[in-house]
Records
---
Amino acid sequence: MFTKLINRELPAHVLFEDDSFFSFLDIHPMARGHALVVPKREEDYFFDLREDELSNILPFAKKVATAIEQVVECKRVGLSVVGLEVPHAHLHLIPINRVSDMQFGKAAIQMSDEDLSALADEIRSKIR
C-alpha cells in the first residue's frame, strides 16, 4: 500500500521525500501531526532494511520531526516502529506530551481531509 502512495497511485498528504525515503501524514492519526516515514524500497521488516537505509532513515526522519515540532504544540515527537500493520517497513513520528500518547490501541483522532492538507502544507514549509 505504501508503494502506491510513493508512486502517486493513491492520494497522500506528502511531507517530504528524497531518493530513498518518503514521509506523509497518517490518515488515522493518534495525534495531530502523526506522520510516517518509509523507505521507497519495499521491505516488510524494519530490521531487514539494508545498512545504508538504516543509517539514513533517522536523519531523514529528524528533518520531518523537527518540522512537526515547529507546527504542532507538543513536548516532543515520539518515534515508534511497530511493523505489524502494513507489510512495508516504516517509522511513526507522533507528537506527544506524555508516554500514554503513544498507545496504539487507542482510537484515532478525527481530522478532515482539508485539515490534513493544511497541516501538511504547514509542516512542509518548515522542512529544511
---
Amino acid sequence: MKTNQHSEIIYSEEDICDLLMQASNVGSIKNLLVDSTVDLETVASVLENVPSFIRYDEIAANALSREEFDHRCQTHWFMPDEYKQLDIAEYVIRLCKTDAELQRVGQELLLYQERNLFNLLRYLKYLVDLMTENRLIWGVGRGSSVASYVLYLLGVHRIDSLYYDLDPEEFLR
C-alpha cells in the first residue's frame, strides 16, 4: 500500500483483495483510490456489490493545492451514514447537565458552526465510538484541544475545560 503527498492511501489490486477479504460488508467500502494496475472491469465482474473506486491520477493529485485538497477531504467524510445524519448540536446539548454547561456548549457550538466544523464533530463522535467499541486506548488529552468542552463531552479527551476555566478560543483560533 502506498500513499501520495496528501497521505491518501492508493490501493493496488492486492490491497483491494486484502481489504475485501477482511470486510464484513463489501457495500460499506466506498471511494477507494486505486492505482493504474487495477483492472476495474474485472473487479466489477467478480463482485455483486461493487465498491466505488476512483482511479488515482498522480498528475491531477500533484496539481491540487493544499486548500483544494482540504476542501475535497472536508466534503467526503468516510463514516457511516448514521453519523453523517446526526444532529451533532442536539446530541451534545443533550449531554449537558447544568445551565453553565449549556451556556458553554452553546458558545462553543456557535464557534464550530462559524468555522463549518460540524462534520468534524460528527466524525470525532464516530471515531470515539469506534475506538470504544474496539477497546482502543487513547490519551487523556493534549494541546489546545482540551480547551473545548464539546470535545470533552464527546469523549475525545478527559480534561473538563469548564472546571479549569479554559478559553475555547484557545482551541479554535
---
Amino acid sequence: MSTSVLVVEDDPDNRELLLDMLRLYGFVATGASDGSEALDLLRTGDVQPSVIVLDLDMPRVDGLQFLDEQSKDDRIREVPVVVVSACYELDSWPRTGRWTHTLQKPIEVGALIAAVESCCP
C-alpha cells in the first residue's frame, strides 16, 4: 500500500504514536506539529497526502483554522480529513471542509485504520 497520510498533531508523543500506527499498516505517514506547518508542507508540494489526520486543539493554527484555509485552496481542498480530538463535544464543532470522520482520543488502532482506508480510492 502506498497511500500517503499527513498527521497534524501538536503533541509529539501522540503524533509519533499515530505515525507508528499508520506505518505499521503500510501507509506512508508524515507528521506536522500544527496547522501552519501542515499548510506549508501541502502548499509547497513537499507532501501530497491522500488523507489528512487532524487534531483540532493546537497552538498557532488550530484544526478549524486549518480546515478553513484548506477549503480556500484549490490544490488541497479535496483532500479528505479525519479529525482526532480529546474534546468530548466534537459533535457540536462546526463541520467544514472535507471533514469525513471524527475519532475520539485515545484512538483505537482499528478505528484509525478503518477511517483512513475509507477515505482512499
---
Amino acid sequence: MTIKIQFRRRGWYKHKRIGKGKRRMVGWRKPKGRDNKMRESRKGKQPLVSIGYKKQGTGKSTIIVYNLADLQNAGKGELVVLGGVGRKKKMEIAKKAQEMGITFRNINIRKLLKKVEEKNGPK
C-alpha cells in the first residue's frame, strides 16, 4: 500500500497569507533559498517533488478514440479516452459508446447527451 504524499509549500502551516486557512494557497512552490533546509532535503523536513513519487499505473493500455472506427476496437473493460474532436463527431461517438456500454475516462456520456438535448430543445 502506497501513501499519497501531499506536496505543500514550505511554511504553509505558519503564515495566514500563504496557506493557514487558505486552501488555494498551500500549493507546491519549489524552495529556492540559499540556506533553505527543505531545498537541501534535510532529514525531518517536508519532501520535495521528485521522480521517485510517481503514482503507479494500472497496467492497462489506454485507447484514444478519434472516430467511430477507433471505438469499434475498444472493448468494455479497457481504458478509453475521447480525443480532441469537434462537437458533432463527439456526439456521434458518445451515442455509439452508450449503445456499446463503453465508458470514457475523460467525459461523462450521459451528462454530455443531456446537455446537448437541453441546448437543442424541442423545435
